Amino acid sequence: RKEVEQDPGPFNVPEGATVAFNCTYSNSASQSFFWYRQDCRKEPKLLMSVYSSGNEDGRFTAQLNRASQYISLLIRDSKLSDSATYLCVGYGGATNKLIFGTGTLLAVQP
Amino acid sequence: EAQVTQNPRYLITVTGKKLTVTCSQNMNHEYMSWYRQDPGLGLRQIYYSMNVEVTDKGDVPEGYKVSRKEKRNFPLILESPSPNQTSLYFCASSSLSGQGKAGELFFGEGSRLTVL
Lengths: 110, 116
What we know:
Chain A is mainly β.
């Protein structure tokens, strides 16, 4: 089982919709989590950091559930420009390493 | 402007011809790392460095070398490239100060390498 797992999608949603991605992790020692956004053929860019139970930034909300070992990303009022791949990243544990999920592809349709 | 710069951005080479991909950051970050990204496999770490003269293997180090002689530079060396090293490569850096800051990576724009 992968340490960080994501549904690859694609998630096809209409503009204005609310969409949620889940990311599960297997290493209970992971301390922090991050959501990165990656546009096609571009570098990943940090979207949100999650150090405690959650974080909110405008239309984006990340929540961490340590008991069930998952992190979610909620995007409200989806825009065409939200179309991208969203990478879940866990950090910490004995090796203090970053573990990347393989990403979830979001396509927002007009 | 804070940035991570990789060169070359695109390269086509042949099996066995040594090549180096350079990476430079101007943020005085301690941590630097190289990843390769392949379809369906996501980002996999090749090598990383916690500071000058300190380097460690990541998950897929075979066929690669790195060096960290200066804080700002972290070149990736392919001594004898093979076709299975055809991939998209990303260099990244991060500050190690503060909780979990090592997870807040700044990535270069990527280097697309094709080995024939």
